[in-house]
Amino acid sequence: MTSLTVPAPRARLARFRDLTLVPVIVLLLVVGAFLDPTFLTAGNLTNVLQQQAAISLLVLAEAMILIAGKFDLSLESTVGTAPAIAVMLIIPVSAGGFGIGLPGTLVIPLALLVGAAIGAFNGFLIIRFQLSAFIVTLAMLIVVHGFLQGPTEGKTLFQLPDSILYLGSALWLGLPAAIWIAGALFAAGIFALGYLRAGRALYAIGGNADAARAAGIRVDRVLWGVFILGGTLAALAGILETGRLGAIGNNQGVGWIFMVFAAAVIGGVSMDGGKGTILGALTGVLVIGLVQNILTLIGVSGFWQPVIYGAIILIALMISRIAGGKAQD
User: Which of 226, 246, 270, 298 has a C-alpha 20 to 30 A away from that of 324?
Assistant: First the structure.
């Protein structure tokens, strides 16, 4: 009987951990309303959600990769490079393109394909050659960003196809399309990791890859798949950000990886793999977005904001260690 009753409390505890940041979110809403009366307006909160929509997709991608016990630092570079390469295949040379002149309707599929290719190459190096995911993706972060700066020569791309601008400006049922897209993908991620075999396999691999392999899980295939999915989500994030800004700058996505890790870590995703949930990562995104908005409203310089994000990560790691003890090792 004892063995049958153990999982229930653990399941309830896991669900509780998913919601541990909810009081923090409520507190931030109260503090923000006190500091600036415009904070709780529908327009401001919608703006926060739209601004966080693109980076939330990177958090979703990184959370799945971390749960599987790996890293991908190159996601931030994919945000700029994937849509830029797709756009340059379409626009004329006079606008900064390659002069190939592909149809504008292909820009989104091409960007997603570039993102998937970057993820596939990361997975190939890590899985086939057993290289460190941290080192490989750190190198790819630099290389992929070079593929943005090199062809554009550091210039911003302005003359973009209408199809890539649509998702950044469209309203669906009164809300920006980017919010609906991010919400739908997070819902899909929560369902997949909670109920689908491939999603549950990520936890098994992150917990113990050898045991997962012995249990019949195709570890290499799953890992390769999650890297490809991560690159695709990063490209979609780049599409949303491009549509919102109406241009592609040579630094698009640069520095995002710090906020991505901050959101994932405070959301309860373990850096050691095998622990964390997509719902927890989502609450981490909301906390980071609200903190960023409050800091902006009260006039804190953007140059100092990374200090606060770094402090959030350190505090979250200490709280996780204290709360989990040796179980976090």
Answer: 226
The dihedral over CA atoms of 32, 37, 38, 40, expressed in degrees to the nearest 10, equals 50
pLDDT at residue 17 in the model: 63
| DSSP-derived secondary structure letter, 115 | H
- Number of folded domains that form the chain: 1
Residue 2 one-letter amino acid: T
| Assigned domain for 329 exists | no
Residue 297: what residue type?
L
Judge whether 6 lies within some domain.
Answer: no
- Structural domain containing residue 89: 14-322
Backbone angles phi, psi at 175, to 5 degrees: -120, 150
Query: Is residue 235 assigned to a domain?
Result: yes
Cβ atoms 181, 243 nearer than 8 A: no
Residues paired with 157 in a beta bridge: 248
Cα–Cα distance for residue pair 82/317, rounded to 1 Å: 32
| DSSP state string for 66-113 | HHTT---TTHHHHHHHHHHHHHHTTS-GGGTS-S----GGGHHHHHHH
Confidence check: pLDDT of 329 > 60: no
Q: Are 122 and 228 in contact (CB under 8 A)?
A: no
| pTM, full prediction | 0.91
Contact call for residues 268 and 262 (beta carbons, < 8 A): no
CB within 8 A of 94, min separation 6: which ones?
none
The CATH number covering residue 94 comes to 1.10.3470
Task: Report whether 81 contacts 252 (CB < 8 A).
Answer: no
* Of 80, 101, 105, the residue nearest 157 (C-alpha): 80
Model pLDDT, residue 266: 87
The verdict on residue 9 lying in a domain is no
